[in-house]
What does this fold into?
Amino acid sequence: MPESISAGIHDLSFATTEFVLPHTALAEHNGAEIDKYHLGLGQRSMSVPAADEDVVTMGAAAAAPIIERHGTAGIRTLVFATESSIDQAKAAGVYVHSLLALPPATRVVELKQACYSATAALQFAIGLIHRDPTQRVLVVASDVSKYALDSPGEATQGAAAVAMLVTANPSIVRIEAQSGLFTTDVMDFWRPNYRDTALVDGQESITAYLQAVQGTWQDYRAQGGRPLEAFSAFCYHQPFTRMAYKAHHHLLDLNGQDAGQATLRQAIEPTTAYNAVIGNSYTASVYLALTALLDQADDRTDQLLGFLSYGSGSVAEFFAGTVVPGYRDHLHTARNRAEVDRRKPITYGRYRALHEQSLPTDGGDHPTPEETTGRFRLAGIRGHKRLYEKG
Ligand code: CAA
It folds into this structure.
């Protein structure tokens, strides 16, 4: 690819769920002080999927505005990133491909490595575009974060999908070539195939995340990456938004820089608006941080952004991107805000019932209740096959 052609994010859109549980309702149930959630974790509410929503319906809803705006020409690859997979064999992206009526001449694949895999998808997409700049790659990151009821992780649950159209000469963010990588075998968070809730060692996971910040940053610099002073803001993976502050504090410490409250707030606060009210969306979280930053009033034109993508287990990557002049004309700001605002608050009891619900496994014909007002719904399961339809 000629050097004058850059690659990156050309369009960016997200979707979340029908329902929302405020942390006040959770605190009322378990007796926690609300400031533990609002201040200690930096979370206000969590998105809760309706009975007829899942990673496919959210993923398709996130990608639909992109397809409506740009059409399908040039899209020959759809990469679906998730760690809340619905099938051990079939990629969830194949259902999205069908719901969006993408051309048959498309490769579709699902990627998994905890919360990290959307970044792998983005990098693979950029690789494909370097090979053929006429191609465009649809990356969909979609997850439902689910922990056991009454466990410490419960307050960090959430659900959302982000879709990105990755192209040459992008309109929103140009991604730079240097990346800092870090992988280490650690059991901080995992979900065996027989469980639908994650297992986690909370404190170990925070330590592992901070270790990954250090490892990726050191590798990023060793690869010729830019100095810390070059960056204007940082989009971190946000399992809860306070984690981004902890991570940035650590990065500043590593660089011998002042980590005062004002410095931290300036770098991180503009990235937290969506994650604070949606909760952990695993693979989508770091790109929700980007969306929140760009949807803010401040002009970010030509600013350099740092991205830290962390997936427990663990694999992490630090990379950089520059905001493209005119980016604001390509955002979905009003739609994004409406997507958050349209959620219906539910009681703790209703949330608990949804949490405990799972699809029948007997192979029978089981329609799901019509709950979502979203664009796509899981109509039911019949003969072990999921059936989707437009909402
Ligand atoms: N007012 C203000 N702050 C309060 C408070 C109050 N009344 N009560 C407690 N706090 C603060 C605590 O001091 C603490 O802050 P610091 O860490 O800055 O000290 C914070 O609130 C949380 O309190 P605890 O540590 O006591 O909370 P906990 O042990 O019940 O659970 C958790 C916290 C371990 C993060 C838990 O929510 C959890 O297990 N979450 C899932 C795992 C996770 O998100 N890990 C993050 C890194 S791993 C990753 O990023 C991958 C991924 O997506 C899962």
The longest strand covers residues 158-168. The mean pLDDT is 97. The chain has one domain: 7-390.
